[in-house]
Automatic annotation (TrEMBL):
The species this protein was found in: Actinomyces respiraculi
Region forming the signal peptide: none
Any Pfam family matching the protein: 2-Hacid_dh
The protein's name: D-3-phosphoglycerate dehydrogenase
InterPro entries named among the record's database cross-references: ACT-like_dom_sf, ACT_dom, D-isomer_2_OHA_DH_cat_dom, D-isomer_DH_CS, D-isomer_DH_CS1, D-isomer_DH_NAD-bd, NAD(P)-bd_dom_sf
Functional note: Catalyzes the reversible oxidation of 3-phospho-D-glycerate to 3-phosphonooxypyruvate, the first step of the phosphorylated L-serine biosynthesis pathway. Also catalyzes the reversible oxidation of 2-hydroxyglutarate to 2-oxoglutarate.
Enzyme Commission number(s): 1.1.1.399, 1.1.1.95
SUPFAM superfamilies in UniProt: ACT-like (SSF55021), Formate/glycerate dehydrogenase catalytic domain-like (SSF52283), NAD(P)-binding Rossmann-fold domains (SSF51735)
MF terms (GO), sorted A to Z: NAD binding; phosphoglycerate dehydrogenase activity
Pathway, per record: Amino-acid biosynthesis; L-serine biosynthesis; L-serine from 3-phospho-D-glycerate: step 1/3
Ranges of residues in domain ACT: 323-393
Length: 395
């Protein structure tokens, strides 16, 4: 039997999230056809045809650079992400990255792994070989944090606890994140200040055009010669060729990242991990739960929470009402035209919400009565309306 909603998954999504889709009304899986929604992690959707049936896309994670967000906005499709849901997992891996770099842990472990002979021989080789892995301690060193969002703030605060000085840069820090950031974190006036002062630099910005290649030849030239760069955000935020060149010339001590590539994965001064930032049971569960709840909210009630391209639109459902969900361009008199059509159909609006963000707007209207197909057709025909659907009253 066809279910009311179909959700196609494009990556392995934690069962703790998937079981929140009620099985009576949801068909969920990799092979779902004509989906109402897509649920993804890192799957790249830029070159994948997205069926016309898709009403919403959820990214169980933070970065949405794998999704054609602008094209979805044009199509009236909200894209959701899960802010903060994997931030602790990433923070912990960044801290691991700090120690990996400061104590040369990976080459040291590799050295130990390759030791041969009996215990006496191994012990002798250990004492002879360990001097090549002498590291440095963190207290008093300066950590530069670029991007003080969910992850950057947690990294900055944790680093203070390790005795590091922290300087941070984020020209668009949110009020919530500013509240959570320790007052001991120094505020950099310019991004250049961070590059100049950091002994260790870590980037926590989204990959957008403005951040592509942000760690550039020019910025690297400002850094201390012993500096280390940590990149657990996205590969493209760092100009890898410039980093490799700085490492080869001895201008940079090391590069630790979550993104192996031909340029870095075998380089003696680079450590790359296989995109493990969010790979903890806890983060996978948090992201999946949040993403599923966001999709259910939109499909079942037209609610918009945590969208990267749509306005927040949350209105409690009036009991017994049918809900109209209209996605429209942000142009004047939309609510007037919708109200007129609904009134002409002899229907009463019990409650109404209209929210806009940039070019796009969402109108939710709770109607005392069933909305006929011809009313939806009239609503869809309004210039500027991208989609209109009616969700029947809940039993
Ligand atoms: N390695 C992994 O598995 C993971 C990687 N990530 C990456 O980390 C990024 C950040 O994640 P969150 O902290 O959760 O996102 P977030 O949205 O909470 O924070 C991003 C911050 O970057 C700031 N920002 C944007 N452009 C900037 C610029 N040019 N200079 C300075 N600050 C700038 C924003 O104002 C915002 O405060 C994600 O977009 C994703 O690419 C996120 C989770 C897991
Ligand atoms: O889902 C993952 O493993 C990657 C997480 C990530 O990169 C993100 O949340 O931006």
């Amino acid at each position: 039997m066809t279910k009311q909603f179909r959700v196609k998954t494009l990556n392995a999504i934690s069962g703790s999230g998937l079981t929140r889709f009620p099985a009576e009304i949801y068909e969920v899986g990799e092979s779902v056809t004509s989906p109402d929604a897509l649920l993804v992690r890192s799957a790249k959707l830029h070159d994948t045809p997205i069926p016309d049936t898709v009403l919403a896309i959820a990214r169980a994670g933070a970065g949405t650079n794998n999704i054609p967000v602008a094209a979805m906005t044009e199509r009236g499709v909200p894209v959701f992400n899960t802010p903060g849901a994997n931030a602790n997992a990433v923070k912990e891996l960044v801290l691991a990255g700090l120690f990996i770099a400061s104590r040369n842990l990976i080459p040291a472990a590799r050295f130990a792994h390759e030791l041969e002979g009996d215990d006496a021989a191994i012990s002798k080789a250990v004492e002879a070989g360990k001097k090549q892995f002498v590291g440095f301690e963190l207290p008093g060193k300066t950590l530069g944090v670029i991007g003080l969002g969910a992850i950057g703030v947690q990294v900055a605060n944790a680093a203070l606890g390790l005795g590091l000085k922290v300087i941070g840069f984020d020209p668009a820090i949110s009020v919530d994140h500013a509240w959570n950031l320790s007052s001991e974190v120094e505020r950099a006036r310019t991004i250049e200040d961070v590059f100049r002062q950091a002994d260790i630099l870590t980037v926590h910005v989204p990959l957008i055009e403005a951040t592509r290649g942000l760690v550039s030849t020019q910025h690297l030239a400002m850094m201390k010669h012993s500096a280390v760069i940590l990149n657990f955000a996205r590969a493209e935020i760092v100009d890898e060729a410039a980093v490799v060149s700085a490492l080869d010339q001895g201008y940079l001590r090391g590069y630790v990242c979550d993104f192996p590539s031909t340029a870095v994965h075998k380089h003696p001064r680079c450590i790359s991990l296989p995109h493990l930032g969010a790979s903890t049971k806890e983060a996978e569960r948090n992201c999946a739960v949040m993403a599923v709840d966001e999709l259910r909210g939109f499909l079942e009630d037209g609610q918009v929470r945590n969208s990267v391209n749509f306005p927040e639109a949350v209105m409690e459902r009036e009991s017994g009402t049918h809900r109209l969900v209209i996605v429209n361009r942000n142009v004047p008199n939309m609510v007037g035209q919708v109200s007129t059509i609904v009134a002409q159909a002899g229907l009463n609006i019990a409650n109404l919400l209209n929210r806009s963000r940039g070019e796009i707007a969402v109108t939710l209207a709770d109607i005392d009565g069933e909305v006929a197909g011809r009313v939806l057709e009239q609503l869809t025909a309004i210039e500027g309306v991208i989609s209109a659907r009616a969700i029947p009253s809940k039993a």
